[in-house]
Amino acid sequence: MNSEFQPKLISVLAEGYGFARLKADAIAGLTVAIVALPLSMAIAIASGVTPDRGLFTAIVGGFLVSALGGSRHQIGGPAGAFIVLVAATVTAHGIDGLLLATAMAGLFLMLAGLLRLGDYVKFIPYPVTVGFTAGIAVIIFSSQITELLGLTLPAREPGPLVEKLPVLASALPTLNPAAATVAFLTIATILILRRFRPSWPGLLIAVGVASLAATLLSLPVETIGTRFGGIPRSLPVPHLPSFSPELAQAVLPDAIAFALLGAIESLLSAVVADGMTGRRHRSNIELIGQGVANIGSALFGGMCVTGTIARTATNVRAGGTSPFSGILHAVFLLVFMALAAPLASYIPLASLAGVLAIVSWNMVERPAFAALLRSSRGDAVVLLATFLLVIFRDLTEGIVVGFTLGALLFINRMSKSVTVVPHEEESEHPLKNTDPDTVVYRIGGAFFFGAAATVGSVLDRIADRYHNLVLDCSAVSFMDSTAANVIAGTIRKAERAGVRVFIAGANPDFRHLLETHEVRSPEVEYVETIKAARTLIREVQPPEA
Asked: Where is the STAS domain (predicted)?
């Protein structure tokens, strides 16, 4: 099997897998499962579906991501970044539309992996990922205000933030002190444990304390039981999502958005794991594994699956050594659901909203956000454009515009790095001093379409002013077709003026590209060095009197 498409699980088994590693992976898997249990239900509820679908996603999707993916430490499951997309899909197309869109996204992810597009997804600029993540965090938090404060809304809560804020403000008189207290208790417990007992499972303990307090004090708050009737004790029987050409066409934009966001989120999570462990993931098989996981999740009634940064980092810190930790995390979640499903009915929704409030706060990379605002005007524009578009417009639009601005910024910066200067400025033996009829120009850097106008204007000014023109390309690191066309235009102008042109130091790839654009002998002479060009020029010049 091509190693590029070999799941990391196979690589681990080929290395030899013993009891010591299994024990470490079991401890890490249990730790992650404890974190994922309340988080999966909270994300599902915030996404507009029942909490059991979050567990189905974490169990089935998490198992398949670890078993078939390209990272040793990746933990798959429902992610906060999908909350807005999933909620919008459910609102517009119902659960059947969500399941079909999830399965279609899985197919798109598999296709992306097979086409080796995983190598390109990693090129998303850093300001885009920071702005996108911060925007998602704002949206998640705003979506939890109703549950955090126990507000009673006259109608369904609007999705867009601009429409939501006036509705929430008008509903403030309906605030439920008990729900707000439970939410505050959950948040305070998580923060206190994080400060004084960081190794303890703060999320689970906080939800447990809040549930116990709400039950013993008979607080008038909504719980999973009162709103959803609890959760089942086992996975449902797998079944194909409802399909019709009309529904498939309707959810196609959602499926593309799921696939795009899933690819970015999962590969970013894998990169984070690589940075923590020194390992390297396989991008394309990771996308294929994510695709299979999304299809599997849809078959079992789950939602979108992706690699999750926080749970993956928890896995690494807990000592996970292989994909078995992710597989065991899914197994432990299944056991928890089988044994403790009745207890989930007592969990207050305000407590789960408190969990998501902490998650949204952690998602904002505050030092990185501040650093990017200070670093340069271009990075700040990309960051703020992505951030504001995600909040006030659309997730996909934010990514696309941010990526486009980042690419234009990169092109502008790279174009300024290209140099085209007279060689005598860099040489101790200037050719121009010994031969006033000859000029040598050195082109350096990445000579591509972004720099073509600048370089072309310089070459045009000197192409017909001398008898001999030498272009030193030995310092060119990259050349594209636009750059080759610029040189071809210079050669044509020089030829009309009777100027003899030499190209020095062009490597075989550059020379082939230039020859493709009709830059061939005898119009131009290819030489290895400037010294070789000087020798040829002197051979045809008459001796000085």
From this structure: 428-537
How are strands ordered across the β-sheet holding 524-527? 419-422, 438-447, 468-479, 500-504, 524-527
Element (H, E) at 522: none
CA dihedral 319, 325, 326, 328 (to 10 degrees): -140
> What are the pLDDT digits (tens) for 525-534?
899 888 888 8
Question: Is the domain of 121 the same as that of 262?
Answer: yes
Give the tens place of pLDDT for each residue, 370-386.
999 998 899 999 999 99
The answer to whether residue 405 sits within a structural domain is no
Q: CA 66, 69, 70, 74: dihedral to nearest 10 degrees?
A: -40
| Residues contacting 398, CB < 8 A, separation 6+ | 131, 132, 135, 385, 386, 387, 388, 389, 390
* Cross-strand partners of 419: 444
The count of other CB atoms within 10 Å of the CB of residue 110 is 19
Q: Does some domain include residue 33?
A: yes
Are residues 122 and 271 located together in one domain of the fold? yes
CATH assignment of the domain containing 535:
3.30.750.24
Any idea what the Cα angle at residue 493 is, between residues 492 and 495, rounded to 5°? 65
Task: State residue 452 phi and psi, 5-degree precision.
Answer: -60, -45
State the burial class of residue 365 (Cβ atoms within 10 Å of its Cβ: 0-12, 13-18, 19+): middle
Inter-residue contact 323 to 9 (CB < 8 Å): yes
Q: Can you say how many angstroms the Cα of residue 359 is from the centroid of all Cα atoms in its chain?
A: 18
* d(C-alpha 213, C-alpha 210), whole Å: 5
Residue range 382-411, pLDDT digits in tens: 999 999 998 888 777 888 899 899 988 888
Distance CA 62, CA 73 (A): 11
Domain region containing 495 = 419-540
Q: How many CB atoms lie within 10 A of CB 512?
A: 11
The tokens for 137 are: 């965090």
Final residue before a domain boundary, out of 363, 382, 404: 363
The residue whose two tokens read 């290209």 is: 418
The whole-model pTM stands at 0.78
List of E strands, 357-450: 419-422, 438-447
- Residue 477 belongs to what H/E stretch? strand 468-479
